[in-house]
Structures
1.
Amino acid sequence: MFRILRKLILFSLLLVTLIGLYIYQSTVIPLKDTLLANDTDGVNAVQCVTHSPNVPLDRHGYLDIAIWNIYKQQNEGWQNVLKQLADRTDLLLLQEATLTDDLKALINEQKQGWVLAKAFIFGGEPVGVMNLSQDYPLSTCAFRYSEPLIQYPKSLLVSYYLLSDNSQLLVANIHSINFTLGLEEYRAQLNVVAAAISEHKGPVILAGDLNTWSRERGEYIATMARNAALTEAVPNDDSRTTIFGQSLDHIFYRDLQLVKTESIVTDSSDHHPLKAYFRLLKKIP
């Protein structure tokens, strides 16, 4: 019995080692913070891009925004969920998106403009956060922060979108780092977002997989939101993915009118999508 157990342990260690070597050898971590868009050549490494959108992000004052950690498209059925979300939202913010041929084909079919902040490249395919919308943002920049324990980066996008009232919507799409012993690195990753929000005069969306699996992380995000005058969009029937009883995915907003929020249950990822419906605030002359 002891010999069998020892063989099982040795086999498990060998299997874990082989998987680790495969992941390590298949992964490329870019030296610079770079992004891709469907109008970039993918050769020149750029951190920021600008566009001249033809239409505003909202529809006559209505603005629907959804977020989803798509789990690198590993589960079956992700195409149907993604297509429905893209069809029914003005801005879709993805985390853990892998830029495969299947994903690019679906996006092109939906005639969506996209930008992706490369966290790393796995098996020749970029992985990171992605924004999908009918037109491009006015400007967008990619940023990364490495997991302190495993050294794999997480990425985020800070973008500015034109609205129909001629204001600009700041959107931060974030995949927060996960494996830390304290809050120092977690706070450091969000500093660039906090700085951008503090300098922006207008509506804001801060959203994504914030990995708020601890009370301390949740309290830090709540403090950050309060300091920036942000309000969280929380669904009444809350089916968001949780760890240790804490929700991981969030949408915070400022200078927008929230109509409703909903979480969408699916088994096509290890996260459930979250969607918020907004209206632009009426400006008083």
2.
Amino acid sequence: MSNDIRVLVEHFLLYLRTRNFSRETTRAYKSDLGGFCDFTDKEFSGIDINRVNRLVVRKYIAFLEESSRRRSTIQRKIYAIKSFFKFLYHQKIVDSNFFGYINIPKKEKLLPSFLSETQMIELLDTVKGDSILVSRDQAMLELLYSTGIRVGELTNLNVDSLDFWTNTIRVFGKGDRERTVPIGDKALKSVYKYLQLRKSEKQYLPSEKALFLNWRGKRITSRAIRKILDKWVKLSALTKHISPHTIRHSFATHLLNAGCDLRSVQEMLGHKSLTTTQVYTHVTTTRLKNIYEKAHPRA
């Protein structure tokens, strides 16, 4: 097998696809490893895989830090390279895995950004109109907030993923793990309205399985959904940056504020570890402290 880094990256990406990694995850690995390849091309005029060592990786970390990248971004990029070299080691392409000697920058602890319930309703109420595209946008945003699913999971939904009888949706998350998530009536009605309008549009073939389609009648992409959300945020009175993940954070925070137990939120979000979900308890604890300080006479 070739020792060219870019060729080996392609082999690694193919391996990820065979292991049922999501398209979003595979795309992130491709981007992060591509950045490392660009760095080695620039700094070393290309480099054989066996010449990549801990000094090269440390120099790359220094480069990222000098570029004012966030620690979470640097950590993700280095973990991508670490996974890549673990794959190469197990495939016996490299003789050793030196990542045990690399100090990976710790991720800064940032509380999730979320919208208040009032802000969330304001955003959803902004999406108004009679066209099929507006109806689609409304259904997508309602569904994101009603279920807390990831944007990549939303794009992968098919029409038969929904069960209108039980008010649930079948979702395939990270690692192709399947889970069933309840849906609120408003979101379900929005989706039903969109599907009814879709039947009358010629460009939308009845045989198309994807739930949400672009204007050409093809499955919508995560990038397109982010652009759509940006458009509606600008039309609302909200001034903060809002991403699909902000809506996911809002979903979890609002459930916990209303008394939902952590384990149930974990299952709905599709988190493998409860520790990942526990970050939202810090948000709700902060809220409770603020309420306490405002309300208690001896606070």
3.
Amino acid sequence: MTPLHTQIPTARDRNGQELRTIQKQLQKLPPGKLICSRNRTTVKWYQGDGHSKTYIPKANRTLAEQLALKKYLQQQEQILLQEQAAITAYLKYSPAGSLSSDDPHLLSDPACEDLLRSYSSTSKNIPDISNVSDIPNILTRSAVEWSAASYERNPLHPEQLLHKTVSGERVRSKSEAMIAMLLHLNAIPYRYECALSLGGVTLFPDFTIRHPGTGALYYWEHFGLMDDPAYAKNAGSKLSLYAANGIIPSVHLITTYETKAYPLNAGMIEHLISYYFLDSAV
């Protein structure tokens, strides 16, 4: 199996290429920014420089279109920069130096080589994994269909879905984007902000996750503003609601927390994913 830390650089390179393409396009566009003024059914365009604005007549629509494109590309640039930050954070904590399955030093050790002889690739004790159907915990067709099916999403504050994930969806924070990225790269099926009814109350857990081996449902809530007393109080109430309905933290409810001083890191996310969904003992 390809180690996750070897896949991330490919995503980083693809992200970087897209970023460079956008930045080249931005260099060719006119200076200033587009300002739209609405008066009932009338829309007026202006070119602003941060201090003043100049009216753009309808005859010069091309300029308005270019400034609109510039605004869009700048937004995409920010999203890509945020993704780069998430990838960089992962690489900082990734186990890049850990021993991989094809590490040459292990097999070159005569003592280990002798002990592993009965488990060589020609031995019948080693399952043939050339067919993915033989790999434990492989993502089944039903799991793929579940992940791709439509579902009731959180309708509140769609304008806050600013962070684009590697799978193309949008989430509300950099930390959620990092969780989504690592779930996606580990082939763990999930739904983002899927409706869940608990005792007559509808919640939208950050992630509803289907275990790739057992099919059991897990929920992941990330509490990202725990240094805000009101936010922390609401987080406690939400956890109590989960527990009152039989969804117990650390059993089928995964929780992560952060403050400004203690941000979430990729190492912790990958540890939790491994513990709950990849380790055979769980």
